[in-house]
């Protein structure tokens, strides 16, 4: 069994996360804590395999928690859970060794996919013989193996979350501004979501000239 510590300051959300984790075969919740300080005290006494970590905690930022965990030599992986859609935050999280990044609000299906990917990563992380093994194992964890060259799963997740929150749809320019990326990059990710059936294009008429293209997540997404 993979043991999980849930770190979340909102009581209802913490309970939902606990229930979600325990619905996934092979995972068990070792504890639920409401602050960074509680998390560090728990981890010193009870090692776990994985931390489900909210980044906005009442006493310290989640990234500070990870720095303290690494400084203490505690061996555990982290899935960051946050409402932050700043790509600079994503880069900081990745630089600290956070395994995956999940944006709020999320569904059970989204968390289930992350946990299953992590479980496969642990299964595959045996002897590394060559570069192909390294690429395969990291691709399992990050979910990058199926994406077109140059695209990252974390960025795709951020774009999808931003588009889902928009409801009625967004242009590539608006999404790029909101997510902190160029219009060209935003359009590339949006077109990929259309290609895989997760989003649709909608023309918006109003001004003179060609209609503006909006993108909207499909209901099943």
Tell me about this structure.
The chain is α/β, with parallel strands linked by helices. It has helices at residues 11-22, 36-45, 62-71, 87-95, 108-124, 131-142, 153-166, 172-179, 183-195; strands at residues 2-7, 27-33, 50-54, 77-82, 100-103, 199-204, 212-217. The strands form 2 sheets. Strands 2-1-3-4-5 form a 5-stranded parallel beta sheet, sandwiched between helices. Strands 6-7 form a two-stranded antiparallel ribbon.
Give the gist of this structure.
The protein has 221 residues and is an alpha/beta fold. The chain contains 9 helices and 7 strands, in the order βαβαβαβαβαααααββ.
Query: Main sheet?
Result: 5 strands, parallel
Spatial order of the strands forming the largest sheet: 2-1-3-4-5
SSE succession: EHEHEHEHEHHHHHEE
Strand content: 15-25%
Mean pLDDT equals: 84
Poorly predicted residue ranges: none
The end-to-end distance, rounded to whole angstroms, is: 30 Å
From the alpha carbons, calculate the radius of gyration and give it in angstroms. Answer: 19 Å
Number of strands: 7
* Portion in helices: 40-55%
Shape: elongated
For this structure, the quaternary state is: single chain
Number of helices: 9
The secondary-structure class comes to alpha/beta
């Amino acid at each position: 069994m993979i043991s999980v510590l849930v770190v979340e300051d909102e009581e209802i959300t913490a309970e939902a996360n606990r229930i979600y984790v325990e619905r996934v075969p092979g995972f068990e919740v070792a504890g639920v804590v409401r602050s960074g300080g509680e998390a560090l005290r728990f981890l010193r006494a009870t090692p776990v395999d994985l931390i489900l970590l909210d980044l906005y905690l009442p006493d310290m930022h989640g990234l500070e928690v990870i720095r303290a965990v690494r400084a203490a030599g505690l061996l555990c992986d982290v899935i960051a859970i946050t409402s932050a859609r700043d790509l600079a935050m994503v880069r900081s999280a990745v630089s600290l060794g956070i395994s995956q990044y999940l944006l709020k609000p999320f569904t059970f299906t989204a968390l289930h996919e992350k946990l299953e990917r992590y479980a496969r990563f642990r299964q595959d992380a045996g002897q590394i013989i060559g570069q192909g093994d390294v690429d395969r194992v990291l691709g399992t964890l990050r979910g990058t193996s199926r994406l077109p060259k140059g695209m990252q799963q974390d960025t795709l997740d951020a774009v999808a979350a931003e588009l889902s929150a928009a409801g009625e749809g967004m242009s590539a320019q608006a999404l790029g501004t909101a997510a902190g990326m160029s219009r060209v990059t935003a359009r590339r990710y949006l077109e990929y979501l259309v290609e895989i059936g997760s989003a649709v294009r909608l023309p918006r008429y109003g001004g003179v000239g060609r209609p503006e293209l909006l993108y909207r997540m499909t209901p099943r997404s």
